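hey team, just a heads up i'm posting the complex here instead of the shared drive bc the drive is being weird again. everything in one block, sequence lines first with there labels, then the predicted structure for the whole assembly after. its two chains so it's a bit long, scroll down
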Amino acid sequence: MGAVIDNFDVFAGGFWLTLQLCILAAIGALVIGAVIAVFRISPVPPLRAIGTGYVTVFRNVPLTIVFFFSAFALPALGSNANFLRIPGLEQIFTRLSIDLPYFRFAIIALSLYTGAFVCEALRAGINAVPTGQAEAARAIGLTFGQNLRFVVLPQAWKAAIVPLGSVIIAMIKNSALAGFFGVVGDLSNSGYALITVRGEPTIPVMIGISIGFLIMTVPLGILLDRIEKRRAVAR
Amino acid sequence: MADDKALIVLDKVNKWFGPLHVLQDVDLSVARGEVVVVIGPSGSGKSTLCRAINRLEPINSGTIVFDGQELPAEGKGLAKLRSEVGMVFQSFNLFAHKTILQNVMLGPLKVRREKPSVVRDRAMGLLDRVGIASQAEKYPAQLSGGQQQRVAIARALAMQPKALLFDEPTSALDPEMVGEVLDVMTSLAKDGMTMVVVTHEMGFARHAANRVVFMADGQLVEEAAPSEFFANPKSERAKDFLSKILTH
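-- predicted structure starts here --
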């Protein structure tokens, strides 16, 4: 394991960049997923169609293809995804503001893809709320939006949190693809560079990368187990 | 009764669930302050009728007029109309994540945008009226069925509705809790609240109703004052129904 210890700074740097990518993509996926979920249950048929179409496309296309289009089609269309240079966010996540757009493209690809799964997890939570709750809310005159905000979503959240966590864990692991679509210096790309450029032995480096991902995913899994246990007791 | 006094008017209302014709040319008029009890065998369409009045079930043809205005389509107009028609469900449907007091206050706060202090006073007054004021900070799951249903009535009353719809309000209750809910309903009827009550409680129909409506197979078969209906049912269906429920 000398390859890991000697190159600890490389792994730490890669870990930090992957963590940034995951945090930003998770925020993006949760926002997109929530919007699409509202579309899918809305009383307006065109919105429902958009929601269903979105989920059908992004849930069924391989992530590699989504990354490919994000990294090659967006620049061809003339976009550098500069809308992601959000003031305030830029100061914490400095990669957002560099000229090379591939970090931003990776956020877009991961967010769009994971958003479809977030939507379905949220919808499962919404479906777990008894229909009588929404009916009673409508009966006292709450509008569709108020019904969601005050009655349905606060209850759906509890049923959705564990499946949502699984979706985010899957997203963290999926982020390993980013290094193969132009992102420089994330966990997988740094490890790959150690092997190909510096000639470090493959297996220890791969184990090092795995440890990096486990540091992010295992605590999340433990947290979810805790939440689930607490809910079981509350019931 | 004169139509200009009527609060709820159903005219030739039809409703299908797939091939099942659950409401067949139903005409019904409910006057202000009137208590109409709808009875009939299971599957006769009486719950659907009740739910159609605030459009929880959309109808396929015919018209429903509430307070001089035809029911609007889905949207803000419908939400406003629903806020003026209280509804009490068989399974209570109290908001499970909110306390009893929050359940009663939600509508006036969010739909009417009234002042919280005013709403709180009115809500506590209503909870006191239905005998649950001491449980205001508990959650629905901590209350008995009868208590939950009384809270549901208070929640509907908090909107100061022009009419109340009851969809089998005692059918999910243990027998010893039926009385406490019927007591609240009887006192509302005495106070002049306009009520449409779908129920199997014949005792309530006898002493609290102004009129009994008997439904079978999606049709409104017979309507009469309760004393008249229970003593001399005219249709064969009503005679058959009454003989079955009154023999035990």
